[in-house]
């Protein structure tokens, strides 16, 4: 079993750190929020007073922070960069969703100091983080992927190597761009059917058994009352926030721009989520984008 520093114990990082504890790892947990640290301590983790303390005398550091500026700040540009204090041989696994360019830049800064940093963003949301069934998309060499895998296995079910540094973040934003497109498309079709007198549950079942079948229809129906236990049936509370989807579509836009890859559908989805966010819905689950289509 390994000794692991865990930095960023929010909605995702908290349950991920607890799953590492449950798997028998020794976890040194740090967050800016004491409450978040105490939740991990209550499950058997050890509190770290600072990020530096969490990152010293450990074999792995896992970070789960909001955005690229937090990741680069903690490891490279902050007052006490962790790259200056971690021991040789420590493997840093960043599971935050950040832009691929920052992920590559931080990995290169680590390499200059002889420190291994890999990107390993996740898909699955808070439910999967709690259940330990996240999908990990890893950007790392074969060797570092193999080294990280036993740690990732304690937090996830499907662990993929997408390619070298940054590739995990590219895979993540491709996936979330597609998710935004299929969710807005599903909302569009359901709203049109219902406005023309169809029952949303019947229409959902028809499309699920037909060529329009997709993930939203299978497990995350955006129409209230069609499916139990999903955010649409709980006033769009919980789940994956519009604000985070908007952030991810911005990351996809950056990749599209930098590589001159045409993404007209992704751009349209981003515009729709921007409108929905501007209407005050940033804190709702992203399936609430259905409301944008409905007569008010
Ligand atoms: P969150 O806001 O709940 O958690 C972030 C945590 O980081 C907070 O507890 C905050 O206090 C802490 N933090 C910020 N700066 C820090 C610092 N300098 N030192 C220590 N701790 C610091 O966010 P989340 O929902 O857990 O998401 C984390 C990452 O995972 C994001 O990049 C997000 O895009 C990604 N993600 C989220 C979901 C989801 O469903 N919520 C799904 C997949 C990926």
Based on the model shown, name its key terms:
13 helices; 3-stranded mixed sheet; alpha/beta; 6-stranded parallel sheet; 296 residues; 9 strands; binds nicotinamide-adenine-dinucleotide; globular
Q: What report would you give on this structure?
A:
The chain is 50% helix and 14% strand. With 296 residues, it is an alpha/beta fold. It has a 6-stranded parallel sheet. A 3-stranded mixed sheet has the order 7-8-9. α4 links the parallel β4 and β5 (91-94). The longest helix is centred in the middle third of the chain and has 29 residues, at 167-195. It is globular and about 65 Å long. The model has no long low-confidence stretch (mean pLDDT 97). Nicotinamide-adenine-dinucleotide (NAD) binds at residues 7-13, 30-33, 36, 51, 64-66, 70, 74, 96-97, 122, 125-126, 240, 244.
Compact overview of the structure:
With 296 residues, the protein is of the alpha/beta class. The protein is built from 13 helices and 9 strands.
State the order of secondary-structure elements, H for helix, E for strand.
EHEHEHEHEHEEHEHEHHHHHH
- Outline the low-pLDDT stretches: none
Bound molecules: nicotinamide-adenine-dinucleotide
Largest sheet features: 6 strands, parallel
Average pLDDT figure: 97
Described by the principal axes of the CA atoms, the overall outline is globular
Radius of gyration: 20 Å
List the helices and strands and how they pair.
Elements: E1 3-7, H1 13-22, E2 26-30, H2 34-41, E3 46-47, H3 51-55, E4 60-63, H4 68-77, E5 91-94, H5 100-112, E6 116-119, E7 122-123, H6 125-131, E8 134-139, H7 142-153, E9 156-163, H8 167-195, H9 200-208, H10 215-219, H11 242-259, H12 264-281, H13 290-293
Parallel strand pairs: 1-2, 1-4, 2-3, 4-5, 5-6, 8-9
Antiparallel strand pairs: 7-8
């Amino acid at each position: 079993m390994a000794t692991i520093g865990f930095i960023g114990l929010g909605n995702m990082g908290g349950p991920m750190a607890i799953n590492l504890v449950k798997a028998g790892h020794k976890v040194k947990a740090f967050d800016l929020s004491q409450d978040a640290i105490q939740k991990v301590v209550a499950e058997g983790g050890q509190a770290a007073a600072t990020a530096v303390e969490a990152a010293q005398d450990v074999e792995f550091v896992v970070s789960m922070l909001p955005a690229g500026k937090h990741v680069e700040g903690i490891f490279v540009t902050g007052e006490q960069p962790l790259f200056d204090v971690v021991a040789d041989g420590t493997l840093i696994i960043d599971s935050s969703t950040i832009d691929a360019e920052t992920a590559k830049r931080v990995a290169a800064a680590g390499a200059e100091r002889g420190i291994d940093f890999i990107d390993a963003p996740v898909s699955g949301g808070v439910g999967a983080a709690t259940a330990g069934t996240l999908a990990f998309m890893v950007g790392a060499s074969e060797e570092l992927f193999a080294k990280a895998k036993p740690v990732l296995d304690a937090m996830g079910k499907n662990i993929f190597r997408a390619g070298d540094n940054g590739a995990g973040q590219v895979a993540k934003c491709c996936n979330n761009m597609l998710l935004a497109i299929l969710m807005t498309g599903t909302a569009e079709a359901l709203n049109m059917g219902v406005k023309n007198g169809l029952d949303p549950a019947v229409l959902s079942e028809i499309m699920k058994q037909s060529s329009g079948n997709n993930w939203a229809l299978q497990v995350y129906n955006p129409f209230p009352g069609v499916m139990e236990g999903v955010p649409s049936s709980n006033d769009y509370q919980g789940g994956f926030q519009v604000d985070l989807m908007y952030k991810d579509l911005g990351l996809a836009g950056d990749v599209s721009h930098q590589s001159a890859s045409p993404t007209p559908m992704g751009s349209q989805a981003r515009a729709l989520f921007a409108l929905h966010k501007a209407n005050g819905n940033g804190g709702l689950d992203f399936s609430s984008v259905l409301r944008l289509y409905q007569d008010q």
